[in-house]
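Example 3.2
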Amino acid sequence: MDFSRTVLVTGGSGFIGSHLVCSLVDRHADWRIINLDNLDYCCSPRSLKSVEDKANYTFIRGDVCNSRLLNHIFNTENIDVIFHLAAKTHVESSFETPSTFQRVNIDGTRVLLAAAHQARHQPQLFIYVSTDEVYGASLDEVFDESSLVRPSNPYSATKAAAEYLVRSYWDKHKFPVIITRSNNIYGPRQYTEKVIPRFLTLLQMNKKCTIQGTLPKSRHFLFVDDAITAFLLVLEKGTVGEIYNVGTGREIPIMQLARELIKMVKNVPEPEVNDWLEFVPDRPSVDLRYPIKCEKLQQLGWRAQVSWHEGIRQTVKWYRDNPNFWSDAAEDEGPIRAQLTNAEHTRVSQFIILVGPREGSASLRPKQSRTLWIFRC
């Protein structure tokens, strides 16, 4: 089948990436969607079960820092659009292993940009998905896209550094890039280290919600469907070289969030809510809030459509219906990972494994719809 457009999504097996991939595959049967992901601990192939057998979907298991793999993909697959989501995102971990965040978030972006820019078939657009955390904390300022970038932790610092790399390709080469900076995105399939699924998982295990520190932290939460709509709108109507904030005016104190979830999950009256709260030491360098303006995106026609009440209802229902999603995913990943580690040219179930660079410039085009390509370069 000939496709009218080829889209590469890095980090497409993660929480946001999997929702983006599923949306692209389902909406655009005439587009070929390639998902490049190394299946880190917070990713699961189960998140893409609904599209894994679709003819316009291809999964490549690989590292975004692997320059030989990236060059091979861009020189054989005629990539038209890149959504770059692959990143390490857990703020607490960024203090413990900052070099890992630098490698993936900065070096991975550098490798991807270089491969895309040097490709024989020039991409039409490179969309870098960043975060509102690059602005740093605010007590009263509401950030727009021209606000100063003042990251306050290793994670946001690496995202800001990657943004500068992306911008440099536009400034020097006029390579077509767009940057998005989004609020905290939540919804089904999010890994349990993030605050909403962490609270839900603890409550499902009959454990208390752990509140980090006593400072009045709050976050603006954006439902994942609204985020995906924004990314797709930027793809079609965004202006190259621009930055777009993606967010909502719904600011929710973390304490209020915990109390709401306790009532929804445990169905307890107000006087008993405190029994399900536990205060623990705070993480280092905590930002209290990240308010942003989204007027530029709204001028393109975007508005958040999912209310907080509806979004959190859907999220709670999904975690209630799928209590073992992440534990089962980890168990499933074990034997698959072992088989792939020992594989050279081997069929595993319906997957085809291609180990490079022996294949030279052979195309990655699938020999069947559900295809996994592994590169050891």
